[in-house]
Write a structure and sequence with these properties.
alpha+beta, 3-stranded mixed beta sheet, 8 helices
């Protein structure tokens, strides 16, 4: 696919964030979501300064002043947040009918954003696992960090890998590497990253990952998992059937490749999916353990076709992880642990399809 220059303002020089593999805080895994702000990493400082400036200058569609948060009573411990403006003041989401929907430059994409929405360029100095495009065009494609103009939480940003390459919303190995490394550039336990596939409640068909800070422990940080094959585990406690990977140290690139093998399988089989990357407890240790790992959770799901209704609670990566974005006042008042678990369970693949997928995954990692 040829590159697209899009908005000329995207070609101008922006603030960059260069980093090397030595900057990845693999061994800095704080044990609490309520961080000591004196422990901010270089990445955290640059992100917060740039994001705060954009908010103070009015570049967002709304502020977070009216955000209200509560932890629902019950065994899951869901974190519900009332965010009414997200229903009425966000960009209109796209309408999709196939996971493999190709990129369409005539529809909204991130090459069309206002230059004010760009925070900085993420610049790894150690190279990426694989270069999807090896052409020698004069304008290199950049990995941009931009604001989410309709934020769900503090420091809500979008990572847009290779923005000018106009990639559809399907995980690439380079994009996955950038997302994983961006998490490891932060020293904050509450910094989380997510991905929604097409037909998995992605709003824009242009490759991007979400990230934001939320200083609450989420249910997905402590679910247990049982081994399936190789590094892949099946989630035990999630109300939606899914898979998990965990990382502490070792070969990061091998870890990323293993996750990519699963997401590629889902994409090829036209199975919508959601991904959540967070710090949390090991999958196979008692929940009172103080050990902390990086968890990558992947949920295959029933496809959501067409345009999503902004007035109801949509089950995307946030909700699957236990962070509920509630855009309706009455729903926020009556929401319960039981009702949410039931709603999330409904988007799981039927048991027969999940059983077949589990067998495919066993074969995938035994090759």
């Amino acid at each position: 696919m040829s590159k697209q220059s899009g908005n000329d303002s995207l070609i101008t020089e922006k603030c960059k964030f260069p980093y090397s593999s030595g900057d990845l805080l693999v061994h800095h895994l704080p044990t609490s979501a309520n961080e000591d702000q004196n422990q901010l990493s270089k990445f955290d400082i640059q992100l917060r300064n740039a994001w705060d400036k954009a908010m103070n200058l009015g570049y967002f569609r709304y502020t977070l002043d009216e955000l209200q948060t509560k932890v629902l009573p019950g065994p899951a411990g869901y974190v519900a947040q009332r965010n009414l403006k997200r229903a009425t003041q966000r960009r209109k989401p796209g309408s999709f009918f196939t996971v493999k929907q190709p990129f369409d430059g005539t529809r909204f994409n991130f090459n069309k954003i206002n230059a004010k929405e760009i925070l900085f360029e993420l610049c790894p100095q150690h190279g990426l696992i694989s270069q999807e495009h090896n052409d020698e065009e004069s304008i290199p494609s950049r990995n941009l960090v931009i604001i989410n103009v309709s934020p769900v939480e503090y420091c809500n940003i979008l990572l847009v890998p290779a923005i000018e390459d106009c990639l559809p919303q399907a995980v690439t190995i380079n994009g996955l590497q950038l997302a994983m490394e961006m998490l490891l550039l932060s020293s904050q336990r509450g910094f989380r990253i997510g991905f929604n596939s097409i037909c998995g409640f992605a709003s824009v068909n242009h490759l991007h990952f979400h990230a934001y800070c939320i200083n609450y422990e989420l249910p997905s940080e402590k679910w247990n998992g049982k081994p399936i094959s190789g590094p892949c585990m099946e989630l035990v406690d999630s109300p939606a059937k899914g898979f998990g990977f965990q990382y502490v140290n070792g070969d990061l690139r091998c870890f990323i490749k293993n996750i990519y093998r699963l997401t590629s399988l889902l994409h090829e089989k036209e199975i919508a999916h959601n991904i959540f990357i967070t710090r949390g407890k090991p999958f196979q240790k008692n929940n009172i353990s103080s050990d902390v790992v990086v968890r990558v959770l992947v949920w295959p799901r029933v496809s959501s076709l067409g345009a999503k209704d902004e007035n109801v609670l949509s089950v995307a990566f946030c909700e699957l992880a236990g962070h509920l974005i509630v855009k309706n006042e009455s729903q926020f008042e009556i929401i319960t642990d039981e009702s949410i678990s039931s709603l999330i369970h409904e988007i799981s693949l039927p048991e027969s399809e999940f059983k077949e997928l589990r067998q495919n995954i066993q074969n995938l990692y035994s090759e």
